[in-house]
Amino acid sequence: MKLNKNLYIIGIGPGNLSDISRRAYQILKKVEVIVGYKKYIECIKELITEEQQIYISGMRKEKERVQKAIDYAKQGKKCALISSGDPGVYGMAGLALEMVEDQKINLKIDIVPGITAANAAAAVLGAPLMHDYTVISLSDILTPWNLIKKRLEAAAEADFITTLYNPRSSRRKKQLKKAREIFLEYRNPETPVGIVHSVGRDEEEVMITTLKKMPLEKVDMLTTVIIGNSQSYISNQKIITPRGYNI
Amino acid sequence: MKLNKNLYIIGIGPGNLSDISRRAYQILKKVEVIVGYKKYIECIKELITEEQQIYISGMRKEKERVQKAIDYAKQGKKCALISSGDPGVYGMAGLALEMVEDQKINLKIDIVPGITAANAAAAVLGAPLMHDYTVISLSDILTPWNLIKKRLEAAAEADFITTLYNPRSSRRKKQLKKAREIFLEYRNPETPVGIVHSVGRDEEEVMITTLKKMPLEKVDMLTTVIIGNSQSYISNQKIITPRGYNI
Questions:
Q1: A7-115 — its CATH code?
Q2: pLDDT single digits (tens) A186-240
Q3: Where is the Tetrapyrrole methylase domain (chains A, B) (predicted)?
Q4: Number of Cβ atoms within 10 Å of the Cβ of A149
């Protein structure tokens, strides 16, 4: 495969070198520069060669990373900007397109999708996402809480399976508690809930519980939470949402 | 990698051998039997070796395929049952777990996630899924239309980006028309809509349009439709949904 673009926005999937796509892997092997958040660079460190230049930065430095990647690409270097999961889901794809547009640069960008946390977490939990679902981030840094709340209510009322991203951090605890309260208004307290910490990484921890019993304190920013719909059930330590086949 | 299970439910991603995960690829290389719908077997035919046994069946034969895969696995064969996209999203994972449970078989199953059509389509459209989103199937074969309608209304009202699976077939045309009507009640007629036919395959076709103008007749069962939220816009032939960063 020949690299015909200068800037690749790459989803590395949940964070191991098995669940990454073959395309993402091959591009990462071939680019001259890789730009990413330090934890994500750590996830792919085994494939990095000595010839490759790496630019690492910390949390909340998204704009700085995108700018670095744009600058390298403008210099004619083949550059990959990485996101965990899928770069199009709360990842770097949107910001990169916005900044390239804002700076009126003529730069072709390839967005390479990855397996997002909802799908990776669902696979270890069983088959919770087998019907219509929503993906909602509980982080209110960039989104007003009232809008998040409205979406939680809509998801709960219309019986969507719901995956929560960024559910809880050391500084931000009330959103998950409130989300549970909203779901309890519409859904049985026994509704299955799956909690997956660090999906796909060595530290992965999987817990299957219910809306009523879910231990909020076990949830942090590296956790994905999946709340079943009214048909979901737990069997053999797996969450299953029936699609509707007559078994 | 050693295969330590007898039954693997594998997501092959959008349908090319680049966007498949490295894990899925390696397992498919090593199993003795691959079971799948004929179009999906076609997608991976280049990796199949002469030693491998292939079981193919047609549309709506999902239960038959799962039963075959279970039977092979019970005989001690290493077997992969494939789904396009992610097996946990309207795929084979749920049905397989349900049937294994129903038949009270002690069979360990590995579910191998894949890139689902929402994420694959988003990548070729730009970055439409950068905020909270829903995934809704318009097929009313297994789901009552009233429930689908309720979910469309909830998604439209709470300003979710919405991805439609199974949007329209030769026999089932009114659901997409109705979905558009529902969204037009809540969202600007200029809201961006992305239509991707056969994402990731040779026949891939990408169209960026609006709620008002979307050509319903261009949409079929191989198409993924993504409707933006109130903030989505079109720029340089890409759909961008801002996450909320101050550029």
A1: 3.40.1010.10
A2: 999 999 999 999 999 999 999 999 999 999 999 999 999 999 999 999 999 999 9
A3: 7-214
A4: 16
First-to-last alpha carbon distance for chain A, in angstroms, is 45
CATH level 2 (architecture), domain A118-240: 2-Layer Sandwich (3.30)
Contact list in B for residue A242 (CB cut-off 8 A) is 94, 98
Give B246's contacts (C-beta < 8 A, 6+ positions apart).
none
- Count the Cβ atoms, other than its own, within 10 Å of residue A139: 19
* Alpha-carbon gap, residue B84 to A154, rounded angstroms: 29
Judging contacts by C-beta atoms under 8 Å, the chain B residues touching residue A153 are: 158
Enumerate residues 6+ apart whose C-beta is below 8 A from B31.
B3, B8, B52, B78, B79, B80
Number of CB atoms found within 10 A of residue A23's CB: 23
Contact A97 B127 (CB under 8 A): yes
Cα gap A70→A32, rounded to integer Å: 13
**A7-115 matches A118-240 in fold:** no
Q: What are phi and psi of B53, to 5 degrees?
A: -95, 135
Give dist(CA A212, CA A182) in Å, integer.
12
Kindly list the domain boundaries of chain B, sorted by start residue. Answer: 7-115, 118-240
| Backbone dihedral angles phi then psi of residue B175, each to the nearest 5 degrees | -60, -40
- Cα→Cα distances B17→B54, B71, B106, Å: 18, 27, 32
C-beta neighbour count of B242 within 10 angstroms:
19
d(CA B113, CA B22): 11
Structure-block tokens of residue B74: 């019970």
Tell me how many degrees the CA angle A44-A53-A2 measures, rounded to the nearest 5. Answer: 75
Identify which of B98, B130, B244 has the shortest CB distance to residue A242.
B98
| pLDDT tier, A247 (very low <50, low <70, confident <90, very high otherwise) | confident
Cβ of A113 and B135 within 8 Å? no
Candidate from B130, B235, B243 with C-beta closest to A101: B235
Kindly provide the ipTM of the predicted complex, given to two decimals.
0.97
Q: What is the token pair recorded at A130?
A: 């087998």
Of B62, B110, B113, give the one whose Cα is nearest residue B86: B113
For residue A244, the model assigns a pLDDT of 86
What residue ranges in chain A does DSSP mark as E strands? 7-11, 33-37, 53-57, 79-83, 109-112, 126-127, 133-137, 161-165, 192-197, 205-210, 223-227, 233-235, 238-240
Instruction: Determine the residue type at A60.
Output: R
Between CA A241 and CA A245, with CA A242 as vertex, the angle to 5 degrees is: 165
